[in-house]
Amino acid sequence: MQPDISVKHLSKVYGDGFQALKDINLEINRGEIFALLGPNGAGKTTLISIICGIVNLSQGTVEAAGHDIVKDYRKARQSIGLVPQELNTDSFETVWDAVSFSRGLFGKAPKPAHIEKVLKDLSLWDKRNNRIMSLSGGMKRRVMIAKALSHEPQILFLDEPTAGVDVELRRDMWDMVRKLRENGVTIILTTHYIEEAEEMADRIGVIRQGEIILVEDKSQLMSKLGKKELRLQLQSKLNRMPGQLTLEPIELSDDGYELIYTFDSQQEQAGVARLLRTLGDLGIEYRDLQTRESSLEEIFVGLVHE
Ligand SMILES: Nc1ncnc2c1ncn2[C@@H]1O[C@H](COP(=O)(O)OP(=O)(O)OP(=O)(O)O)[C@@H](O)[C@H]1O
C-alpha cells in the first residue's frame, strides 16, 4: 500500500543558515496514528510546517496522499488538515460560519451535511450558533479541529493537541482522535505528554537535533528498549549483598530492606526464577514483591539524552 506521507532526503536550512532538518526519511501509513516526539527545538514544527506547505523545504521531496507538496501544492494541501499549536480563535463569527468558511478556503463546494457531522462528532452541535469568542478554551480547541476537518482531509496533523487542556478534555480528545482513525484518517501528532503517545500511537518517531533517530512500532519499542524491575521487600535487613548475587543485575537499597532486580522486557523470566531460587537457598525471606515496566517516558528520556 502506498504511504499517505512520504518524506525523502528532506533537509531544511533557515534563512539565517541554521539547519533545522537533516536528511529526513519517513513514511506514514494510511490510517495510522503516528506520534512525533522530540525535545524543544528538535524540528517537529518545521517538519510539519513543510509537509503542510507553510514553510519551504531546502532539499528533498515530500508527498502527501500521493501528491508532491511542491509540484502539486493544491492537491497536497487539500488532503491535509492542520490543527496548529497556537489557538487563533478571537472570533466574532459563529462556530457554524467559521467551520463552513474554512472549507471554502480549500476550494471545496459547500457541504452542510459534512459540517453538521463534524460538529456533531466533536460535540459542538449545540454551540453551532454561538460566537467562538464566547466559548470555553476546550470548546475553542474543538472548533480548531472542526475547522481542520471541514474540507474532509485524508491526513490530520495535531501539533500539541492537548497542551494546557484538563485531564477530562484530554481523554475526550483521545477518544475523538481514535474515532477519526476508525474512519480512515491518518493522524500525526506531536506532543510533550509522552503518556499521550503511549496511550494513542501506533508508531512513534523520535527526532533529535533535526534528525530522525528512531521510528518504531510502539509496542515493539516498549518491549525492545523497556526495562522491567522486580522489587523484593525483605523480612530482615541485609547488611551487604551476598556473594552469590553479585553477578546479577541487582541492587540492595540503602536501608538494606529491599532488593531491586532489573532485566530487559524481552528477556525470558529465567533470571527471575533463578534469583528467587538463590534467595531460597540463602534463606533470605521476603514479605512482598512488585514488578514494574519502564514507561515510554523513561525510554524517551534515555534516547534523547544519549
Ligand atoms: N524561522 C526560523 N528561522 C531560523 N531558525 C528557526 C526558524 N524557525 C525555527 N527555527 C529553529 O529551528 C529549530 C527547530 O525548531 P522547531 O520549531 O521546528 O522545533 P520543535 O521541535 O517544534 O520545538 P518545540 O517542541 O519547542 O515546539 C530550532 O532551533 C529553532 O530555533
From TrEMBL:
Keywords recorded for this protein, A-Z: ATP-binding, Nucleotide-binding, Transport
Gene3D superfamilies per UniProt: P-loop containing nucleotide triphosphate hydrolases
Molecular-function annotations in GO: ATP binding
Keyword Amino-acid biosynthesis listed: no
Superkingdom per UniProt: Bacteria
Ranges where the ABC transporter domain occurs: 5-234
Keyword Nucleotide-binding in annotation: yes
SMART domains attached to this UniProt entry: AAA
SUPFAM superfamilies: P-loop containing nucleoside triphosphate hydrolases
Protein name: ABC transporter ATP-binding protein
Organism the protein comes from: Marinobacter qingdaonensis
Lineage, highest ranks first: Bacteria, Pseudomonadati, Pseudomonadota, Gammaproteobacteria, Pseudomonadales
